[in-house]
Design brief:
Helices cover 32% and strands 26% of the residues. By secondary structure, the protein is an alpha/beta fold. The strands form 3 sheets. It has a 5-stranded mixed sheet. The two termini are 38 Å apart. This is Dihydrodipicolinate reductase C-terminal domain-containing protein.
């Protein structure tokens, strides 16, 4: 166990905060000192299922923010949580702005037949982004067909097709640029665009606090922060 000392403004003495890498020890400690506890999982897809099971063994709910998690894992977790009557929130994004962007895109898709996703990122890691993939999957699930005029084009300048319904994504990578995602829709005589920018990881905090407050009352698995907005 490692202990870090943090000096907070207005406090005479620094806080001694332990940092542990043993989930069993952490879960046991929380369950003994708190009437209700929540484990927040920011790890990796391969460890999520075991982490949630271990937390549940100590009576702890889980908030999972692992964007790359497979749907098979979510399904297995849902079955486990149902049997254990244990709450779990799996949130592909904790950004409230990102969730609102996705909901706006779904609403717009019923009125427009052409759509393109344009995003910018400061580094080329994991492109297209999880946000762009989620938006494309949401639109694909609606059973529409987009961009019919050039749906079969293989011109690389037209971007990458995500899903099976012709949704395309274009990504600009420039060091120093802010992370941004814009969904453009067009119809006869008009273009409708919705955009979401993030400037720091602080954008996740309001959604995380909301998730923690809501998961305490759950006795099953819920997928997506939008269920609570």
């Amino acid at each position: 166990m490692i202990t870090f000392s943090f000096q907070l403004c207005g406090m005479e003495e620094p806080l001694e905060i332990p940092v542990l890498n043993d989930l069993t020890m952490i879960s046991g400690s929380i369950s003994q000192t708190k009437a209700a506890g929540v484990v927040v999982d920011f790890t990796e897809p391969a460890s999520v299922y075991d982490n949630v099971k271990q937390a549940a063994a100590f009576g702890l709910r889980s908030v999972v923010h692992v964007p790359e998690i497979e749907l098979e894992t979510v399904t297995a977790l849902s079955v486990f949580c149902e049997k254990a009557s244990m709450g779990c929130l799996v949130a592909p994004t904790l950004s409230i702005g990102s969730v609102l962007l996705q909901q706006a895109a779904i609403q717009a898709s019923f009125h427009y037949n052409n759509v393109e996703i344009v995003e910018s990122r400061p580094n080329p890691k994991e492109l297209p982004s999880a946000e762009a993939i989620q938006i494309a999957n949401n639109l694909t699930d609606l059973g529409q067909m987009y961009n019919r005029e050039d749906i079969a084009t293989e011109n690389p300048a037209r971007g990458q097709v995500l899903g099976e319904d012709g949704v395309r994504v274009h990504t600009m990578v420039l060091p120093g640029v802010r992370s941004s995602t814009t969904v453009h829709f067009s119809g006869p005589g008009e273009v409708y665009s919705v955009r979401h920018d993030t400037t720091s990881v602080e954008s996740l905090m309001p959604g995380l606090i909301l998730a923690i407050r809501k998961v305490i009352r759950l006795q099953n698995l819920v997928y997506g922060l939008e269920k609570f907005l």
